[in-house]
Every structure is written in structure tokens, then in C-alpha cells.
Amino acid sequence: MSELMVTLNNVVKSFDDNVVVKNINMDIKSGEFLTLLGPSGCGKTTTLRMIAGFEQPTDGEVIIDGKEVSNIPPHKRDVNTVFQSYALFPHMNVSDNVAFGLKMKKINKDDIKRRVMEALKLVQLEGFAKRKPDQLSGGQKQRVAIARALVNSPKVLLLDEPLGALDLKLRKQMQVELKHLQQKLGITFIYVTHDQEEALTMSDRIAVMNGGIIEQLGTPDEIYERPASRFVADFIGETNLFEGKVVGLDEQHAYLDLSGHKVPIIPTTKVSLDEEVSMAIRPERVQLHNELNGAGFAIPGKVVEHIYVGSIIKTVVSLPGGDQVTVNKTPEVAHSFAVDQDVYVNWEPDKAVIIA
Ligand code: ATP
């Protein structure tokens, strides 16, 4: 088995004059859980459909397990797709739905029976073989669709917003189940979602897409902690964005002028003196203080409001010059700062990132 399972080489897709996927390059490893994440219309589904074979690239190559597959129809590729809509046959029971593909391949009856039962066991639906789809809940229908896609042991499973129709609680439960299933089977999963939390929870790596390009490809941790662009910083989680000028440089740090204060940052990209840059800092990385504690920098501000969101409180602080910063803390910490109180904010220099 090759280490790489799917490769996209300079893949382009246009519909008439509309270029919806713009020269994408990506290597997906065998056994990897890779998520295509991005807002509606960014080209996720079109990319997935090119891997599945439902769309032909306008340009470039799709390689699956070492083979260029552009001229190979979907049913002859070693991939299966799970759709949000389940796409079950309503007149067939669960067992027949799962068996359908194997029957088409004329596999012998005993083998079909065994494999269907194995697939239903994987998705914890052993007792449901004789039910019709309309006798199942949304989550159970989606499990049948997953069993049907897994029953012929594809090398790659493509999943297009498979949990999109489920309520939040079931969705979260299925996220964990799917991740465990993928780890157990070791099959390469390529998963499409616009839900950043879902992507962070499930993926080994995430490709963040925007306007037909990949803005960043990395582990959830890299994407969250080191967003490469303003779009990624904004789309994944919450972030405070500031514009500032580089007013100093030493071996380790760049110093930005933020709200009239000289703020150190450890840049991961090259910056030059006098350059105007954008800086992102996550709300949970910002520290609040009652008084100047002497060490490092501190920007004075005033508490504007507390916003209660369950396990944390978002404290909005206004800074000199009109900027605001949001600080996420536990209720105990947040409530030690009153609305209208004068405070100081700072953060560790390596927790802020300079973004394009
Ligand atoms: P969503 O999350 O809404 O499904 P997406 O990121 O999956 O969005 P795509 O479905 O890949 O986006 O669509 C990307 C763009 O391509 C959209 O502007 C869409 O209108 C366009 N598009 C997709 N399929 C076709 C088609 N068959 N003909 C013409 N345009 C298409």
C-alpha cells in the first residue's frame, strides 16, 4: 500500500466561465481523516465530487492509490460516498439497502449476508436489519448510509456534510462515533463540512478552503494556534484582530505599535521595520489585570460588558484609540472585573500571530 492515498495535482474545475476550484494541490495520506472546511460555495463539494468521479476536473490530475483516475467512472474507483441526504432506497429494508452494491457485483449470497451483518455491527444497528428507512430516526438512517458505504471495504470514504441534518446533540455523538469508526478501520476519510468545531474535533488535518483555493492545510492545532491568513483566523474559532506597525525588531521579537503601546510578538514569518501588519490573538489567550504588574507590556483599557455564554464569560474591553478586545475567562475570573472598571490587558508574545 502506498503511503499516499489521494493526490490532487493542480486541479481546476470550471462551470462555463465560472472557475470554482482554482489549482488545488493536496496529498492525503493512507488512513488519514482529512476535512475540507469552508463557507458555503467555496468549492468543497465540487472537490469531493472530483475525487468520487461525479465531476471531471477541467484541468489537473486526481490520483487514488497511485493511479490517475480521471477516466475511471465512480463505481470503478476504490471510493464510496456518504451524502447528507442519506440517499437510502425507501422500499428496501436496512439489510437490502446495505447489500445493494454487493448484489450488483454478483457476490455470493452467504458472503453478502456476512458482510452486511458485519457492516451493521460496525454502526451498531444489528437489530434493525428488517426495518424500512421510514421506521428509523435521522441518526439511524445516516448509520445505514455509512454501513452501505463501508460494506465493500473502500480504500477511501468520502463524506459530504453527513451529519448536517441531525440535531446538535446527536451530531456531536455521531462525530465521536465516526471518528472512532475511522480509527478502528484505518480507512482514509475525506470529510466535507462548513462547521469549524466539527472539523477541529474529528480531523487529523484540515484544508481550509475559501473562494476555490486552499488557504491553509494543517493539523487542527496548527490551524487554530497558527492561522496563516486573516480568513483562517476569522473563520476558525474566535479571534481578536489588530492592525499595527512594526516599530522595533530584535533577535526573537518584533514590536508592534498597538493603541500607542509597544507590544512584543514572536513572528513566524519575516516582517520588516515600519511594515503595517495584522495581528491575531485568541480571546482565551488574553490576560486581564487589575493593576500594572511590572512584567512585560500592558495596555490599559476599560471593561465594556460581560457576555455570558455558559461555561465561559466573554469580557469586552475598550482600548485607547477605539479598538476593542474580547477576553474569554471562567465566570470566577471574569466577575472579578466590574463593568466600567479600568484594567490592563496583555498576552504571551508567542500566543499572538502575524497574519497576511
Ligand atoms: P456548500 O457548503 O454550500 O455545499 P461548497 O463549498 O460545497 O458549498 P460547491 O458545491 O463545491 O461549494 O460549489 C462551488 C461553486 O460552484 C458554487 O458557486 C456553485 O454554485 C457552483 N457549482 C457547483 N456545481 C455546479 C454545477 N453543476 N453547475 C454550475 N455551477 C456549479
Low-confidence sequence ranges: none
**Mean pLDDT over the full residue set:** 92
Distance separating the two termini: 38 Å
Strand content: 25-35%
Helix-and-strand structural type: alpha+beta
Instruction: Quickly count the helices.
Output: 9
What share of residues is helical? 10-25%
Specify Rg, calculated over alpha carbons: 25 Å
Bound molecules: adenosine-5'-triphosphate
Protein name: Spermidine/putrescine import ATP-binding protein PotA
Organism: Siminovitchia terrae (Bacillus terrae)
Domain ABC transporter: 6-236
InterPro entries: AAA+_ATPase, ABC_SmlMolc_Importer, ABC_transporter-like_ATP-bd, ABC_transporter-like_CS, Mo/tungstate-bd_C_term_dom, P-loop_NTPase, PotA-like, PotA_ATP-bd
Please explain how this structure is put together.
α2 (94-104) packs parallel to α4 and α3 crosses α4. With 356 residues, the protein is an alpha+beta fold. The two termini are 38 Å apart. It contains 9 helices and 20 strands. The strands form 4 sheets. The chain has a 6-stranded mixed beta sheet with strand order 6-7-8-3-9-10, sandwiched between helices. The protein has a 5-stranded antiparallel beta sheet with strand order 13-12-11-14-20. The structure holds adenosine-5'-triphosphate. The site of adenosine-5'-triphosphate (ATP) has 11 residues, from α1.
